[in-house]
8-amino-7-oxononanoate synthase (Gordonia rhizosphera NBRC 16068), 390 residues
Amino acid sequence: MTTLHPISAPVGTDDALAWLNDEAVALRELGLHRDPVVRRPEATTVNLASNDYLGLSTHSAVMTGAQAAVEAWGTGSTGSRLVTGTTVAHIDLEDDLADFLGFPAALAFSSGYLANVGAITALAGRGDLIVSDTGTHASLIDGCRLSRARVVVVERGDHAAVRNALRERTEERALVVTDSVYSIDGEPAPIAELYAAARDHRAALLVDEAHALGVRGPGGRGLVAELGLSGAPDLVVTTVLSKSLGAQGGVVLGPPVLRSHLIDRARTFIFDTGLNPAAVGAAHAALGLLRADPSLPQRLRDNAHRLAAAVGAPAPAAAVISKIVGEPQPAVAAAADCREHGVFVGCFRPPSVPAGTSRLRLTVRADLDIATVDHVADIINASLRRVGVR
Ligand code: PMP
């Protein structure tokens, strides 16, 4: 793992972009600058930073699904979904996902990000209220901002505050948005309480199941299914094809009238090139594997519990393990040390997480055997000791 551009060359001080130099220096001084990690084919690293929770992105059946779709439809979807970018493979995938997750209809977008932005902006606009919380993913936040609705943000988990905001509103229409499993630390949101608050106050609830699909619920059907809410009225679920299903893309699930509304109104659906055929083929093959083997999510959860216990992190509610380090510098140093010793871990620090809670963020996979889980735990513990954390 190396970086392509370790130090960026400053631009001329007379240039209009000169302020970027100051920003770059300030971020570096704080140890907060970011460089994408470049994965290389020859690397023999164990990847504990990916969202490939079930290990399906390299499963032979999933790769064959992608290849078959490329053979049938080519490498690009060739246009927007409304013009040439919808194939029968797209419709088959949408139908199968809707059936698996217990909703009448589904619509696929080319990313989870675009699915969230598209769904929120199509469901709320000027003169409406959105109630969100402090733990939501950036794609939900951006959807709220772009909607032009009035947005009330409550503390994560505070469903009573959501209820109050809905009760006290002057707007007729309201939408509550939340992650089902928070992306930062894998903790679940109070979905049952949020749904009850929404129903009591004639609001819709949009739940992002990105980190719950393939992880929680019966056969990996997610937290909404675990709570018996699949297909419930006024419930909109979004999820991604880019995590447990090992592909790429996003999906919105709900009643058929929601699907047709999004086709008419969601700008990220209308003006974006349709989901790539390779992603459609891969996601559909992965969905087949998940259907055929309901023990996959359990294997993932077992591995997550084993690794969390071994590194002294709290028992995880999903696939995400947070090993809190505290200050950003030792967290960054520990992550780099892990990488040097063949384990690729995530590192979250401000502004992604509150000050003082910089952490190693670990995600295990269902396809790791117990010996590998124990081995990577030893490496992580040794790295933490070397940087003086434990
Ligand atoms: N929602 C959540 C909760 C996420 O964590 C992510 C991505 N990490 C997304 C949406 C965006 O999905 P995608 O990467 O498919 O655009």
